Amino acid sequence: MPALAYKDSILIRDTCFENSLICQPQQRNIHGRIFGGFLMHRAFELAFSSTYAFAGAAPRFVEVDHVDFLRPLDNPDEPLINVEVVAHVIQLELRSSEVSNKFYFTFTVHPEALNDGLRIQKVVPSTEEEAWRVLERMDAENCQISS
To answer: Percentage of the chain surpassing pLDDT 70?
Structure first.
């Protein structure tokens, strides 16, 4: 599939950033779990940074959606950049890791950047697994729209 992509496309795997942090006591609730607001704040910062690096211009936040991955719209006046942030909880003492949350953010760039000639690359899957994930998110969006 990547060979069929537009010339200005980029593979999903080439748009990924990672970040690690150790949850300090001040970021934990009385049960020793990380505060959801703190985790969401860090997820947003990572999503913002990833979007900035990908687009090459300061992003403008559009929405956060914890369930659905919005399909890209071919609107040259307001291209949407969908970002998935996956949070893993790692227990260093047990040497274990598991996914605790998935966050989905949508950004665009300021119209002035587009007017100055900025072009946003299309992101395409490079594996069958990535393609299925994109299709699942598009199906979830279609179900939400028709409900």
So the answer is: 82
